[in-house]
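Before surveying the methods themselves, we first show a specimen of the format, giving the amino acid sequence and backbone structure tokens:

:::
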Amino acid sequence: MKTIITTPNAPAPIGPYNQAILTGNTLYTSGQIAIHPTSGALILEDITSETRQVMKNVGAILEAADMNFSNVIKSSIFISNMDDFQKINEVYGSFFDDETAPARETVQVARLPKNVNVEISVIAIKS
């Protein structure tokens, strides 16, 4: 059985998908970009602000599923420029404890939705 997870505290989907799906005790989030959830504005001033907004959006979805970043077991990061990796990693890392950080991959891609610079999705498990 799958449960659709949705919250007004994260951006509404921009296509035919949901913010997240909970099946059993496992949550799968859709990729989040730096859209401010209430204004709909893209937060693109710099890669640090952009990544912070992405992580806030992920956090809002986790919260809607009664989870938090400690429940994340896997994340996927897509970036448009690998030169931004260090700054993205600093912001991303501030949301996790080093000892319990999830598995992860980071991939440079040619282009992301709305021409953003970073997109992140996670898989989380409710213990």
User: Anything to note?
Assistant: The longest strand covers residues 72-79.
